[in-house]
Amino acid sequence: MFDTVPGLLDAIRSRFAHVETCPFQGERVFFENAGGALTLNSVVETSARFAAIPDNQGRDNTASHALAEVIGKARADMAVFFNAPGGQFIVGESGTELLFRLIGAASLGTGPGRVLGSTLEHPASRSAAARYAPLSDKAHVLVAHDDATGTVDAAAYLPEITPDTRVATILHTSPVTGIGVDVAAIAAAIRKVAPECYIVVDGIQHAAHGRIDLAAYGIDGYVVSPYKAFSRHGYGVAWLSDRLAALPHDGLMGAPGGAPWELGTRDTGAYATFSDVVAYLDWLGGQVSDHDDRRARIVAAGAAIHAHEQRLTEAMLHGTGNLPGLAQIEGVTVIGGVENAAREGLVSFALDGRPAPELVAALNAAGVRTHTRKDDHYSGNILTPLGLETCVRVSLCHYNTEAEVARLLAAMQDIVQG
Prior knowledge:
Residues 29-245, 303-408 form the Aminotransferase class V domain. It holds the Pfam family Aminotran_5. It comes from Rhodovulum iodosum. Keywords: Lyase, Pyridoxal phosphate. One of its GO terms (molecular function) is lyase activity. This protein has 13 helices and 15 strands. By secondary structure, it is of the alpha/beta class. It has two domains: 2-38 and 296-417, Aspartate Aminotransferase, domain 1; 45-279, Aspartate Aminotransferase, domain 2 (3-Layer(aba) Sandwich), CATH 3.40.640. A seven-stranded mixed beta sheet has the order 4-10-9-8-7-5-6, sandwiched between helices. Strands 11-12-15-14 form a four-stranded antiparallel beta sheet. The protein is globular and about 70 Å long. The two termini are 34 Å apart.
């Protein structure tokens, strides 16, 4: 997609740090984006600038007022990026921490019944639900995902949705399979049976691949980890509906306007760096569309990102030039299936007789950065039912190129023939 517009892919890559080289390893291809996407150069600059400012929000001085304006702008930018229908945005320690807080408040703030989730989910949401369900006199019920497709749908949720389903959790995209979930369809199925249920979505893996539309989902909470969406480590972002925000929650007694959800002084630089992400996507949308509206440009950017990543994953699976794809290599198992329209910029695979750590090490020696997923607390829910102890995760983003995919496939040829 992006390489059909002269100079655009180069312009995109120029906006990110360490695109082609690692400061520790040297030259390499970066296919470990699900572990943390590349960082925008503007985010690096913004982080340094705000790290030097000694002032905090909430004071009556010029610097403090300026910081408050930065935070206000960032929240407005978040509303555009997420297409948020009211509610509020908060910044926390991490995406995991925020999932615990939202799921905890929803569980403790409602009566006996069910907390409903799925076996597809990351341990962040599953662990939070497992902790707070018994504390709030609820059963924690898990819907089984489909091992073959690596996802879960509304039809699978439906038999377990009961009128006393008080809290539900949904994973937007799996960080192991790379397969997306139809959040709106699952939420609608839940609302039909349990209209007052609080629905919290883990969007951490999905965010970098564009196309977030909270207004279309009918949910109460959505959480992302910005370091996986071109920002930096050290903070998470959550959106809360007004009714979820109104539930009892941890907060400071006597604070103006009731107990705020944010605990302690937040890093203004974190907010500012999310504005950098939104500004980048706004710019990108302007390169692939002629829309005047900012939200429309962000939607266009998301569509273009998806199209480009889909093209790269097709090349990875089916080959490019004279190089066979992963699906054509004898003994390769592609998790989630080879033909899966819901895949988002990620291919996980196993090779018969070759442990994934061995493959990842060989690829790394060839200058291709990938990652091993093991049947541990992070990935066992996906790998164990498949009879796999490990797999190789190749995760790409829209700044990756077909030439980089070719380098991966060439390295795999050398490995299997060596």
